[in-house]
Design brief:
It is built from two helices and nine strands; from the N terminus they run βββββββββαα. With 161 residues, it is of the alpha+beta class. The strands form three sheets. The chain has a four-stranded mixed β-sheet with strand order 2-3-9-8, with no helix packed on it. The chain has a three-stranded antiparallel β-sheet with strand order 1-4-5, with no helix packed on it. It has a two-stranded antiparallel sheet with strand order 6-7. The relative contact order is 0.14.
Length: 161
């Protein structure tokens, strides 16, 4: 096989966190085989960097290539579902005469900046509902004056919650 240029591929590895301080998350890769993988967690706008380690194949010695991508925009959160998979990955392609060597490393992305916006919408909706309920209690108490004290107590309880 080496005569055709199809020699051994060698081994390529991505080192993303040499200090071991980045959070990792276990991700299920395949439902049938229960394969799992540890992926490093990144956030939107965070730098992505590390080293590529290429063990000897055609090379005569180990080779290490440092890389750094500053302020990488990652607008979506990683997701693995039944029908859809949204992933971020690093890909290295070594172009050879007959066959190319491709190595990929997935990373997990979390979006923490979107959560408060959703909570604010819910709180605004709750406030509007409480205001409508309070107005309804006031209107009802005016229509039924004999129960006015009871309605005022209910209204007071609603506004305290």
């Amino acid at each position: 096989m080496d005569l055709l240029g199809l020699g051994s591929k060698g081994h390529i590895d991505f080192i993303l966190d040499p200090q071991g301080q980045r959070k990792q998350i276990e991700v299920k890769l395949d439902d049938n085989n229960n394969k799992r993988s540890l992926q490093y967690t990144y956030y939107d706008g965070e730098d992505v960097g590390g080293s590529l380690i290429a063990l000897p194949g055609e090379l005569t010695e180990n080779t290490s290539i440092d890389f750094h991508f500053p302020n990488v925009e990652k607008p979506y959160e990683s997701y693995i579902g039944i029908n859809v998979k949204l992933r971020y990955f690093l890909r290295l392609t070594i172009i050879r005469r007959f066959t190319n060597t491709i190595a990929e490393r997935d990373i997990c992305v979390q979006q923490l900046s979107q959560y408060p916006e959703i909570n604010n919408k819910i709180e605004n909706h709750e406030q509007r509902l409480l205001k409508q309920l309070n107005n309804e209690c006031v209107r009802t108490s005016q229509e039924y004056p004999s129960h006015q004290e009871e309605f005022q107590q209910r209204s007071q309880q609603l506004s305290n919650n």
